[in-house]
Amino acid sequence: MKKIFYFLSLLFVLISCTEDVKFNNPAFQTLKNNVFWRAQTYKAYLGANGTIIIEGSLGYEKVTLQTASFEKQTFALGVNDQSRAFYENTLPAEAVSFSTGTTIGNGQITITDYDTDNHTISGTFKFTAVNDDESNIESQKINFTEGVFYKVPIEVSDIIQHN
Asked: Which residues of 18-48 are buried (b: 16+ CB within 10 A; e: fewer)?
């Protein structure tokens, strides 16, 4: 009887030690002003003039990354209007927009993988964007650091239309 009790105890311990692992595949996450921020929805698509646009949204908040092309390289922000970053909160009580552009803000977007077979894009980003409302002295800039977009799906219909 003692052996059965030990066997059942061991079996119970082994069964209760299972763990459900959740992978972030795909993912879009960053530190927004040093606070963890993870998008609930994300997508990528081709924009005008061969640009690629990557978007991550969490409720009323949206981060948009735009690069001059989909080539594996690092794109500097604050240099021109082809590679830019945007943050927007559309909640009426907190409505605000921040962006980078020619001599506005700074940062970088690095594309590390553009998978044409699976239609996904991966990379990293960091940027400081300036409030589009210059009269808002309370919140003049917003910082995003340690940003990652991993295997974000590219809308295939847009790829076909632009090829």
From this structure: eeeeeeeebbbbbebeeeebebeebbbbbee
